[in-house]
Amino acid sequence: MERAGRLIGKLRLCATPEELARAGWPVAVGQRIAAHSVAVALEGSRLLVEVEDAVWQRHLTTLQRQIVARMEAVVGPGVVSEIAFRPMVPRRLPRREDRSARPADEADAIADPGFRRLYKVARRKATA
Fold first, then answer.
1. Which domains does the chain have, with CATH numbers?
2. Which of the listed residues 1, 83, 113, 122 has the most CB atoms within 10 Å of its CB?
3. How many angstroms separate the CA atoms of 44 and 95, rounded?
4. pLDDT tens, residue order, the chain (128 aa)
5. Cβ atoms 22, 39 nearer than 8 A
6. Which residues pair with 49 in a beta bridge?
7. Order of strands, edge to edge, in the sheet holding 37-43?
8. Is the pTM of this model over 0.90?
């Protein structure tokens, strides 16, 4: 039985060449490499692939001919004839504020509520 990527590549059902190339990338390179890279765009017959870092970029550049041959087998000839690798822009996810790391107010250590209030007022005036 043929792989789904090859079958789609042969049939070309409502898929643009870019969609075929992007969908065929993980099939052509395998799970391990696909976990560290992503096909971003197809410019003509040149596939633009973002990789995790410069080490992956150098490694995949040396394997470029084999990967192009595998891409031709997966998506069909003429779709991808060249691959350009570039490092990904580091993406930072939003982080939640860690409330436990927030310094405790030193005024809370004052037992007398009157003195505590006087201390806070004096501190506010001193820092203003």
1. 4-87 (3.30.300)
2. 83
3. 39
4. 456 556 555 555 557 889 989 999 999 999 999 999 999 999 999 999 999 999 999 999 999 999 999 999 999 898 999 999 999 887 777 777 776 666 678 888 888 989 889 999 999 888 87
5. yes
6. 39, 85
7. 37-43, 46-51, 82-87
8. no
DSSP state of 97: -
How many residues in the chain?
128
84, containing H or E segment: strand 82-87
Residue 7 identity (one-letter amino acid) = L
Q: How far is CA 29 from the centre of its chain?
A: 17
Alpha helix locations (H) across 63-112?
64-75
Tell me if 49 sits within 8 A of 84, measured CB to CB.
Answer: yes
**Residues whose CB falls within 8 Å of the CB of residue 8, separated by 6 or more in sequence, listed in order:** 15, 20, 23
Which of the 8 DSSP states describes residue 90?
P
Question: Which residues are 41's β-sheet partners?
Answer: 48
Answer whether 124's CB lies under 8 Å from 116's CB. Answer: no
